[in-house]
Write a structure and sequence with these properties.
Layout lengths: L11 H14 L1 H14 L7 E5 L5 H9 L4 E6 L2 H13 L6 E5 L12 E7 L8 H11 E17 L12 H18 L11 H7 L3 E12 L5 H17 L6 H11 L15 E11 L2
Parallel strand pairs: 1-2, 1-4, 2-3, 4-5
Antiparallel strand pairs: 5-7, 6-7
Helix pairs in contact: 1-8, 2-3, 8-9
């Protein structure tokens, strides 16, 4: 995965703590997904797993727990994130079954080796040629193996439509700005190709047999635990940074108020903050 853009450059090392805490909060959602994968691909037959775009390795550890006979390889282009993945595996007592692979995809795809399960969690959209990389993954699958692609779902929601300050509907406008940012990010990827993101169709075109798509919900209602509140503050701060220039001055000022630790209407003090999101997993099998 190319993690280097121009106007939309992402500092993945800087983003590491946010990614790690976010994945930890979504563990219940991903545990449901892992249990579903176990139904599709019984754990006894899974000996090797590739976690593509593993980041700090939260899902790597979860996959190692869900498939106890497998070696799990965390694959990422950012070494500091892989260091987090190794440390997490050691803390969880999984160090003997988890290893890491520093790889830029698709260039280093052939170095990854075969697998019974490939998990690509919100990583395919960071590769310019999405159709091509899915075909690459298909070639790495052993007969009967499964590819699970996490793409799409629902935008996260954290606030009521009307929060009592600013113009109502802030999160909808953030979604629109983030959509524009995403278009620019994709346009700057190496070898980028426009693609209809029909994941079932793309998996079929890669020579795989689609084996089901499911969405998994995370619902943490208000009042949220402090760990959730701190994560939301970090997430809004990240959006404030990357969407500067894509949001109106009015909305940027509203975000500043929400992020102000002293503002009684800010995220740190509001009783109505919540977390509601969904992730969609698309699966396909090699015959």
């Amino acid at each position: 995965m190319s993690h280097h853009h121009d106007t939309t450059h992402i500092d993945w090392d800087e983003l590491g703590p946010l990614l790690e805490r976010g994945a930890e909060l979504q563990n219940p959602l991903y545990r449901q997904a892992a249990a579903w994968l176990d139904e599709l691909l019984p754990a006894a037959g899974v000996r090797r797993i590739l976690d593509i775009g593993s980041g700090p390795g939260v899902l790597t550890a979860l996959l190692a727990e869900a498939f106890p006979y497998a070696e799990v390889v965390a694959v990422d282009a950012t070494e500091p994130l892989l260091a987090r993945a190794r440390a997490r595996a050691e803390r969880a007592g999984l160090g003997d079954r988890v290893r890491t692979s520093h790889a830029e995809l698709p260039d280093n795809i052939e170095e990854l080796g075969e697998a019974d399960l490939i998990w690509a969690g919100n990583s395919v959209h960071h590769i310019g040629d999405q159709r091509g990389v899915l075909a690459d993954f298909a070639r790495l699958l052993r007969p009967g193996g499964l590819l699970a692609v996490v793409e799409g779902g629902l935008p996260s929601r954290h606030l009521p439509r009307d929060i009592g300050i600013g113009r109502p509907g802030l999160e909808g406008r953030i979604d629109a700005a983030a959509g524009e940012w995403f278009i620019r990010m994709r346009a700057e990827l190496s070898g980028t190709k426009d693609e209809v993101e029909d994941w079932r169709g793309l998996l079929g075109a890669a020579g795989l047999t689609p084996s089901g798509t499911r969405s998994f919900l995370l619902d943490i209602p208000a009042p949220v635990p402090e760990a959730v509140r701190e994560q939301l503050v970090s997430a809004f701060a990240w959006q404030r940074k990357i969407l500067d220039g894509l949001l109106s001055a009015e909305d940027l000022a509203l975000l500043d108020r929400l992020l102000d630790p002293e503002d009684p209407q800010g995220l740190r003090h509001r009783p109505d903050v919540y977390l509601l999101t969904a992730r969609t997993v698309h699966t396909a099998r090699r015959g």
